[in-house]
Design a protein that fits this description.
alpha/beta; globular; four-stranded mixed sheet; 18% strand; binds pyridoxal-5'-phosphate
Length: 398
């Protein structure tokens, strides 16, 4: 027994917060932490943003839930706004990223089914991917540590090395339905698919009649300085999953698709009780009010550059700790030479929060509206943390 009534699935830090405001989190005794993890890219507008609070509280006093048996005006509105801001024509709302991916996978398979090609169910995915923790999404992610002990692996996923276009081409067969990829792998360690590779995937999909499905759960909704990260490549997907930042902290996900790709998703073939409920829609619309404001995304890109330049200078100064700085916009990674947990702990001692990732990377995912001053403040704390790690590694005098 661990002494807790909770499942022991999370290795939690012994740290709790009572309140948040913008990019800051406060403990019960008033200690302030600069939050550059933002709930793992979720608190896209920081904590307790007044516009989001007003939207949620306002809706809470009117109507919480009615089910998808009825029209939900906030849902139609958010759907139209997401379609207008993206490649998509159609939207299905969910409560999480994994559910958005489930919908994306079902949409892709169903497309081929209604085209009379029932055999086309296989989906090509990439090593290092993370698509969620449902049975299908752990199969899509293909990571042994998440699959072990959970019985038969959901069939239909063929995994190839990340960014290896030759391997993708070889993996395409008569039963292939789609290619599923994160434009920037988050959990995998802020690994960005090259723009050339993204264009190549589009070309392969067009050539073989496959659907291009993007997991933009972490990279989407402004995180990289574009509404969706694929926009940097100039090519569009057929289907994309978003979540995290779209709810700004309220559980919300969405599967976006073109009209053509969504044509198999007819009445009754898919559903959800909670997805798209009025509370989530009120918050999602409020998030878009700000993220789609003129100049907001340009500002994310500019602040991302400011942070990346500062990190590059730190990397130059501490080559024995930092291997590489990578990422785009405000989705940045510090690849460490020493164990990332050591650097993360040193940052936490400087009251700066970040999130670990694969390949010994630390992710910096601040709120998208983080200020220039807060970025400078964070850089100062990261610098101090690097000094502390260096000092701890030096042999003691005498
Ligand atoms: C790229 C990506 N896809 C899917 C998911 C799963 O989202 P959720 O945890 O909301 O189910 C995550 C979560 O970290 C993610 O980063």
């Amino acid at each position: 027994m661990s002494g807790s009534a909770l499942y022991d699935t999370f290795a939690r830090l012994p740290l709790a917060f009572e309140r948040g405001e913008g990019s800051w989190l406060m403990t019960a005794n008033g200690t302030r932490y600069l939050d550059f993890a933002a709930g793992i890219a979720v608190n896209s507008l920081g904590h307790a943003h007044p516009h989001l609070v007003a939207a949620l509280v306002g809706q809470a006093g009117r109507l919480w839930h009615i089910s998808n048996l009825y029209e939900i005006p906030g849902q139609s509105r958010l759907g139209e706004r997401l379609a207008e801001a993206s490649f998509a024509d159609k939207v299905f709302f969910t409560n999480s990223g994994a559910e958005a991916l489930e919908c994306a996978i079902k949409t892709a398979r169903r497309y081929h089914f209604v085209n009379g090609e029932e055999n086309r169910v296989r989906i090509i995915t990439f090593e290092g991917a993370f698509h969620g923790r449902t049975l299908a999404t752990i199969a899509a992610g293909g990571q042994k540590k998440y699959l072990e002990g959970f019985g038969p692996v959901v069939e239909g996923f063929d995994q190839v090395p990340f960014g290896d276009m030759e391997a993708v081409e070889k993996a395409i067969g008569p039963d292939t339905a789609a290619i599923l990829v994160e434009p920037v792998q988050g959990e995998g360690g802020i690994r960005r698919l090259s723009l050339t590779a993204m264009r190549k995937l589009r070309e392969l999909c067009d050539r073989h009649g496959l659907l291009l499905v993007l997991d933009e759960v972490q990279s989407g909704v402004g995180r990289t300085g574009k509404f969706l990260a694929h926009e940097w490549s100039g090519v569009n997907p057929d289907i994309a999953a978003v979540a995290k930042g779209i709810g700004g902290g309220f559980p919300l996900g969405a599967c976006l698709a073109t009209e053509e790709a969504a044509k198999g998703m007819t009445p009754g073939v898919h559903g959800t009780t909670f997805g798209g409920n009025p509370l989530a829609m009120a918050v999602g619309n409020a998030v878009l009010d700000i993220i789609l404001e003129e100049g907001f995304l340009e500002d994310v890109a500019r602040r991302g550059l400011l942070l990346k330049q500062g990190l590059a200078a730190i990397a130059d100064e501490f080559p024995e700790i930092v291997e590489e700085i990578r990422g785009e916009g405000l989705m940045l990674g510090i690849r460490c030479k020493v164990p990332n947990a050591v650097v993360q702990k040193a940052m936490r001692e400087e009251k700066l929060l970040c999130a670990p990732a694969g390949e010994n990377v630390l992710r910096l995912l601040p709120p998208l509206n983080v200020s220039d001053e807060e970025i400078q403040d964070a850089l100062g704390r990261i610098h101090a943390a690097m000094q502390a790690v260096t000092a701890a590694a030096e042999p003691a005098d005498g």
